[in-house]
Design goal:
69% helix, globular
């Protein structure tokens, strides 16, 4: 018996439509992962030279204040040269770019990858996600349209986005959540799972490639919460809201900081000045406030109980200012990984101040709030917070904690500007 609902429901795609998508999805997924792994490996090797080999050869401390200031200023000069001279100036202003976006011209990709690699190695407080996704999209669309001219560019872009997300997090789950959120408001043929089929193949291929060649892990070693109670729910609601409010402070400050650097007008002034400021911030906050922040977050959580609430709050503030400076002055990089460190430091500060709050609740809820404010990606924020908690019992708490935090951030400025330099609303 048919109903009106059945008549208007999207028609599911037959196997003959979905099956040919598997091979291109596998190719793009593996290629996106190899791109991410290659950039990460080169950045790690260069980081080892800058922060271990050279300081040892010069017989100075790798994280002495003078060395941090020197290396980050030099990184600003190097990235400034790339942005100034590379074709396409290493991509558009990163302050106005989120995850994904229109495909770049393929000639822009080398400069973008070089600028991102230098920033990662030099200790800039940005992650690899935005440049890697943008580069993967550009290459996948360029090559895909030549291999299959009749296939829409959006198809290749979705495969590259999914493959890179799978590689970044070592699981296709994050890609599924991001694409589900993106596709929810877009018209398209077939059911949602038909439209997700090829991207999930790409995400799975990207995740498996990373697993084979690396050991991605967001495990922080937090104590596991197995039996949450009402007090844990209350703590999650409060801490997530505090994290969202803290993240919004940066969102409101970001446009003014971007305009201040914009007055310098030239990348060889903007980026060295930003690098100098990042070096001074590193000298103030210490080595934990450098780099993208994932390993530093693990180190910070591993020292649970060592830092006072004031010291942890200082780390959160310094790292957040460093993220704002790096994104505002023109360094190429993403904001997700630094935001995780900021949220973890903030959560640990709350837990040190109120020891009754469980560490897993404090850290995961604060990360959730900060990510919601800075990325406005609800599913990704929830996914990362849940992975950090490493406890299925925490998932219900975090789902509920998302609600007041979202009420705080929705309709507010984001940590992303439109092309006129205004905060997106």
């Amino acid at each position: 018996m048919s109903t009106d609902h059945d008549a208007t429901a999207p028609t599911e795609a037959p196997v003959r439509v979905l099956l040919p998508q598997v091979l291109p999805a596998l190719v793009v997924g593996v290629g996106s992962a190899l791109l991410f792994l290659g950039v990460s490996k080169i950045a790690e090797e260069l980081q080892s030279v800058l922060w271990e080999t050279l300081p040892d050869a010069l017989d100075i401390g790798p994280y002495s204040s003078l060395w941090m200031i020197a290396v980050l200023t030099a990184t600003g000069v190097a990235v400034g040269l790339v942005v100034w001279k590379a074709p396409g100036h290493a991509g558009p202003d990163p302050a106005s770019e989120g995850l994904g976006g229109p495909p770049l011209a393929p000639g822009v990709v080398p400069g973008l990858l070089v600028a991102s690699t230098l920033a990662l190695a030099g200790g800039v407080s940005l992650g690899p996600e935005q440049p890697t996704i943008a580069s993967a999209i550009a290459l996948a669309v360029w090559l895909g349209l030549r291999a299959a001219p009749g296939t829409p560019g959006a198809f290749w872009a979705s495969l590259a986005t999914a493959g890179t997300f799978g590689a970044l997090f070592g699981t296709p789950v994050a890609a599924a959540l991001v694409l589900s959120e993106a596709l929810a408001g877009r018209p398209g043929k077939g059911s949602l799972w038909d439209r997700l089929f090829a991207p999930l193949v790409a995400a799975g291929a990207g995740a498996m490639t990373t697993q084979l060649f690396s050991s991605p892990s967001f495990a922080m070693g937090l104590p596991t919460l197995t039996d949450p109670g009402w007090e844990d729910l209350l703590a999650a609601l409060v801490v997530a809201t505090l994290g969202a409010l803290f993240g919004l402070l940066g969102c409101y400050a970001f446009p003014a900081l971007h305009r201040a650097f914009g007055r310098l007008r030239h990348p060889m002034l903007m980026l060295p000045a930003g690098g100098l400021l990042l070096g001074l911030l590193g000298a103030l906050g210490g080595h934990l406030t450098l780099f993208k922040g994932l390993h530093e977050t693990q180190e910070l959580v591993g020292a649970l109980g060592v830092y006072s609430s004031g010291e942890l709050a200082k780390l959160a503030v310094v790292k957040f200012v460093a993220l704002l400076v790096a994104a505002a002055c023109g360094f190429r990089g993403g904001r997700v990984f630094p935001a995780v460190f900021i949220g973890a430091a903030l959560g640990l500060a709350v837990q040190a101040l109120v020891p009754e709050v469980h560490p897993a609740v404090a850290v995961s809820s604060a990360v959730l709030g900060v990510l919601l404010a800075t990325t406005r990606q609800g599913w990704v924020s929830l996914f990362i917070a849940a992975v950090l908690a490493s406890s299925p019992a925490m998932l219900s708490l975090l789902c509920l904690a998302t609600l007041p935090a979202w009420l705080v951030v929705t309709g507010r400025p984001q940590l992303e500007l439109d092309h006129r330099g205004d905060a997106l609303r």
